Amino acid sequence: MEKNPLIIQHLTSGDFRNAPFEKVILPLGSLESHGDHLPFGTDSLTAYLLSLEVARRVPKTAVLPPLQYGMSEAYREFSFTLSLRPETETAIIGDILESLYREGINKVFILNGHDGNIASIEMAARTVKAAHPEMKILSLDAWWNTLKELLPPGFFEVWNGLGHGGEGELSIGLALFPDLCEPGQARGIVPRLPPYVDVKWMVSELTDCGATGDPTKATREKGVIIKETLVNAIVGILTALDESGWDYRSPEVKGNQNREMR
């Protein structure tokens, strides 16, 4: 195995002493069914591989091992789903953040790949931030929603590319880990969800195949654009923060003052 200086689990104490990193990316995912066309680890793989792409472009940045389990109770009726309890997930994220603080790493970007993790991210990050106000903690909670702001209208063909294993998720999978994808098996259902409200569903209420949206519209070409768009956006944010000394009040980041990047 070739050592990659961006991957923290590859490094030794000597590596860190001689070339310390000052900020880290924490990828969060899950292990759960994504239909017959995507692997169980889709959320973790997506978050981790995107994190490595970002770290390659931002100096003094390294990537933590991905958390490959998430709060996946809503998917448990489809195999193969392993789930953490919300309080367990919150505790794990909080412990990781506390450990980073102890190690002198005060700048953390959380890149989340799974919707069920969002509440735990919020609780853990807010708790640690209150305990250590000098820490800078940012989170991209739902990259799939961020795309609505970053991509041109009409980029996706169905349901704005949304869906568990849908057009957007299979597309980025085809760009990041094509050998693990089975696009010929793609199938999904676009559910009839009411507007404005957040329905607390079990995925079996929405689909009989474990996937929602329309993955048959996915392409690798779309996935490459999605990947580059997300990576460029995150790199832009981190670069601007580095240039401003992570002072949220400085002119360099005023343009983002209405963006809720926690």
Explain what you see.
- This protein has helices spanning 13-18, 42-57, 86-102, 118-131, 143-150, 167-176, 220-244, 251-254; strands at residues 23-28, 61-63, 107-112, 136-140.
- By secondary structure, it is of the alpha/beta class.
- It has a domain at 8-156 and 235-254: Rossmann fold, CATH 3.40.50.
- The model is unreliable at 257-262 (pLDDT under 50).
**Radius of gyration from the alpha-carbon trace, in angstroms:** 18 Å
C-alpha end-to-end distance: 35 Å
Return the structural class: alpha/beta
Order of helices and strands: HEHEHEHEHHHH
Strand content: 5-15%
> In percent, how helical is the residue content?
25-40%
Low-confidence regions? 257-262
How many beta strands in the DSSP annotation? 4
Q: How confident is the prediction overall: mean pLDDT? A: 95
| CATH second-level architecture of the domain at 8-156 and 235-254 | 3-Layer(aba) Sandwich
Shape: globular
Instruction: Say which CATH homologous superfamily of the domain at 8-156 and 235-254 is assigned.
Output: Creatininase
Q: Record the strand order, biggest sheet.
A: 2-1-3-4
Q: What is CATH's topology name of the domain at 8-156 and 235-254?
A: Rossmann fold
